[in-house]
Amino acid sequence: MVGTEICRLLATQNKSARALVRKTSDPATVEKLKELGISIVQGDLRDKASLKAACKDVQVVIDAASAMPFSYLPGENTPQTVDQDGCLNLVEAALGAGVGHFIYTSFPPMSASFPLQDSKRAVEERLRKSGLIYTILQPTYFTEVWLSPAVGFDFLNHKASLYGTGKNKISRISYLDVAQFAVACLDNPAVRNTTLELGGPESLSPSEVVRIFEKTSGQPFEVSLVPVDALEGQLAAATDPMQKSFVGLMDSYASTAAIDMTTKLKTFHIKMRTVEEYARNTLGHN
């Protein structure tokens, strides 16, 4: 998602870019990158030798990789092996290659401890102490993921599961806009050795989002509330790293605070996508 869009934006700006892909990467995605003029290097975050070759003669590394949610494979592609150990491998490879700037995609600190968050925090800490010039992007919940059937927002069948009371304000952000910020950081000295929390252009409660989709679709939604104590019980009982991480993210979704983007948007001048635009696109009301 984010990585492919970053490559597309770099190509439109005629910037020389190299994409790290695995042997198991989707051939169609790799072909799409080649068509954009992106140089391809095969490797794996878990393979230190491949990262040394990938980082050779590179000025900037942009790390948007994660095992979650699409690449998770128990015991193989996990928050520990990819999001922590793998990304730490990439930091060391960048150091060894003399990379000038490392842009890392994380997310804002959350209250609960869970594998994905623990991995992100470990990489952030290493980056800050590494001596590399770094920019840590902390985008909040992705619109395209958290307003999708995968996490209970089944807009096609007009059903939505809301976590907690459904009244807390959330600054959802499109992954497309996360990619815009990542690319904008390349030529902005002000973001070096900084951490940027990123949200969308508006703060909407889950209940307000439901009303937007109801208005756009012309259909009422069946809404169910998932209590916080139920999520905390699931978090305590979960043993699978992906399940534990998803429940941890859901638990924080029920209480996360809004992110004020006013100052950042004056600096970056990025036109961000709204939830209403997303609703119209997903429901075919362009």
Task: Give a summary of the structure in a few sentences.
The protein has 286 residues and is α/β, with parallel strands linked by helices. The chain has one domain (2-282): NAD(P)-binding Rossmann-like Domain (Rossmann fold), CATH 3.40.50.720. Helix content is 44%, strand content 14%.
Features:
Rossmann fold, 14% strand, 3-stranded mixed beta sheet, 12 helices, alpha/beta, 4-stranded parallel beta sheet, 286 residues
Explain this structure.
- With 286 residues, the chain is of the alpha/beta class.
- It has one domain (2-282): Rossmann fold (3-Layer(aba) Sandwich).
- Helix content is 44%, strand content 14%.
- It is built from twelve helices and nine strands.
- The strands form three sheets. Strands 3-4-5-8 form a four-stranded parallel β-sheet, sandwiched between helices.
- Helix 4 (79-97) links the parallel strand 3 and strand 4 (101-105).
- The protein starts with a helix and ends with a helix.
- Written as H for each helix and E for each strand, in order along the chain, the element string is HEHEHEHEHEHEEHEHEHHHH
* Silhouette: globular
Examine the secondary-structure arrangement and name the CATH architecture.
3-Layer(aba) Sandwich
- Overall structural domain count: 1
The helix content is 40-55%
Q: How many helices?
A: 12
- Gap between N and C termini: 22 Å
Report the sheet-strand fraction.
5-15%
By helix and strand content, what is the structural category? alpha/beta
The profile of the biggest β sheet is: 4 strands, parallel
* CATH level-3 fold name: Rossmann fold
In CATH terms, the superfamily is NAD(P)-binding Rossmann-like Domain
The overall strand count is: 9
Q: If you average the pLDDT, what whole number results?
A: 95
pLDDT < 50 stretches: none
Q: Measured on Cα atoms, how large is the radius of gyration?
A: 19 Å
Strand order of the largest sheet: 3-4-5-8
- Under the CATH scheme, which class? Alpha Beta
